[in-house]
Amino acid sequence: MSAEREHFSSRLGFILAAAGSAVGIGNMVGFPVAATKNGGGAFLLIYAIFVMFICIPIMLAEMGLGRKTQADPHGAYTGIAGSKSPWRFAGWLAVITPFMIGVFYMVITVWILGYLLATVTGNLSVIANPEHFGVFINSPTVFLYLIAVAAVIYAVLVMGVRRGIERAARVLMPALLIMLLFMVVFVLNLDNAFAGVQFYLIPDFSKVTGSVVSGALSQAFFSLSLGMGILITYGSYLRKHNDLVGSAKLVAIADSLVAFTAGLMVLPAIFAINPDTNPAELSESSVAMIFTFLPQIFLELSNTLGYLGASIIATIFFTLVFFAAITSLVSIIEVPTATIVRKYNVSRQKALAALALTMGTLTLIATASFGMLSFFTDFVSYGGSRHSFFDLIYDVFYDTVLPLNGLLICLFVIWVWRRQNFDAELSQGNESYAQSFLKRYVDFSLKTFIPVILAIIFFNTVLDIFFDKALF
Length: 472
Ligand code: PHE
Hints:
The protein is mainly α. Helices cover about 75% and strands about 0% of the residues. The protein has one domain: Hydantoin permease, CATH 1.10.4160.10. It has 20 helices and 2 strands. It has a two-stranded antiparallel ribbon with strand order 1-2. A hairpin with a 2-residue loop joins strand 1 (about 380) and strand 2 (about 385).
């Protein structure tokens, strides 16, 4: 099959698609709020250190493994270790993870579409009512939006790598950037915006605790779409002569810059419009921020811009987040799609139909686990409290399994695939890599402290979530 494997048309196509995956809901709201609450500039510094020293080596491991094997995660692990090797379970885990994370990401994307359509149709005042969110997520219309989002994702993925994934990224990513820059310029020109910039940037090291540090690493991991098999899969669509190392660096820089820039939009907006906001009270959850807090902020803009002006700003914001979510969702669902196509030798249409049925059912259940169906709303007990089906997916896959997948990749690349093969793969398309300091650093870190750190984070998360006993 590999001879006919589709590839991105150019290195730029790959970078845009990988950046499209990386830039998502996490960048737009998760990052800015985490930074403000957890020490401003101090958090930014820790985050940047993690991206450079921990995430880039893992990115290279994932992309290199994908390009070498020209396969999805399951094909990559079994291609190197053999189809009977126990590593095939790591391969399956790296396929099931995006499958399950896709379910929760889909639910949130569906809500974003709902809020986007509400602002477009002049209903900003409705969504600005904090009570609205609970009513909205339990209304039957969410199922219509679910069908709409699924149709968009299907339309992109069925077209394949170049005409689907790459083309969507080529349109959506520049559009996203333009909207983001427009919003930043607009927000920074509001009176009192500077207060928000201060909260965001001035370092406060006293806020930095063990859990802030580990939270920064999790945020960086999620934001760069690591541990999800995505970069293995996208790497498999990269040609041998393309510079993989340079591309990985650019993706990491682009993702971090977008996250940083989003902070210049979200926080100054909050403090300009509502100067009495206490940063400690900002909700940690992106969901509460997007769906209850920000709509109120946008509505307050009507005082100066009029209702239409405020609605336009809110529409631009939700379009921005929606575009970011769509390119991420595409990348998440491409992983199981590519796996099914290769393993069962079927067309993309068939693979997507199978996913629509299975993921679709789980997404319906997750959507209904906020009250509509009490069995799934009050689904399981762990860590001393009851949790919904949605919470379970989030806690198990997002919080717990991501660092585990990262750990498995490091161990696999160094101990099974072997350093020399890994180095040789990365040197293709980048002749200077073999002699570089980066190469020595990547090899050393993947062999020593990165797996140790990921193992500690994994165990701590398990203790924290399931036993309510975190070490830090
Ligand atoms: N990286 C994306 C974000 O920051 C989300 C994402 C997660 C995308 C997992 C793909 C896979 O929101």
